[in-house]
Write a structure and sequence with these properties.
This protein is mainly beta and about 130 residues long. Helix content is about 5%, strand content about 45%. Strands 2, 4, 5, 6, 9, 10 and 11 form a 7-stranded mixed β-sheet that branches. Strands 1-3-8-7 form a 4-stranded antiparallel β-sheet, with no helix packed on it. The termini are far apart.
Length: about 130
């Protein structure tokens, strides 16, 4: 089964930038390119929020309105990683960030959204992002 490991979380000042990585394993490269991968985040005391997702190159990525214009998602198929590029970070971006995928190859990411956990049932352990004011 596909496995996911996040990295890149850190403590940064408001206005700073970070790049989170989601390393994908236990799938062939060919299969990896067909998996939709998403980023979610959960702040203390708040519900899980879908931040961004990306599918294959025939479909555009989804970016949540709350981060549009500041965050981007990309994938590097050569190394089987999906990245969340975060700029203009704000204290309200403080959260644990998770990458997630369906447990089978399917279309789970739509450019128009919404991004929900419905089809995402394989999760990484999370990486902490803290933005100081």
């Amino acid at each position: 089964q596909i496995q996911l490991v996040e990295s890149g979380g850190a403590l940064v000042q408001s206005g700073g930038s970070l790049r989170l990585s989601c390393a994908v394993s236990e799938v062939t490269l060919d299969d990896y390119t067909r998996y939709d991968i998403a980023w979610f985040r959960q702040a203390p005391g708040k519900e899980l929020e879908g931040v961004a997702c990306i599918g294959d190159y025939t479909r555009g990525p989804y970016i949540a309105d709350s981060v549009k214009g500041r965050f981007m998602i990309s994938r590097d198929d050569a190394v089987k990683k999906v990245y969340l590029h975060m700029t203009g970070l704000k204290p309200e971006d403080t959260a644990t960030y998770f990458c997630a995928a369906p447990d089978t190859i399917m279309v789970a990411c739509y450019a128009a959204g919404p991004l929900t956990t419905t089809w995402y049932n394989v999760w990484g352990q999370g990486t902490q992002v803290t933005v100081s004011s």
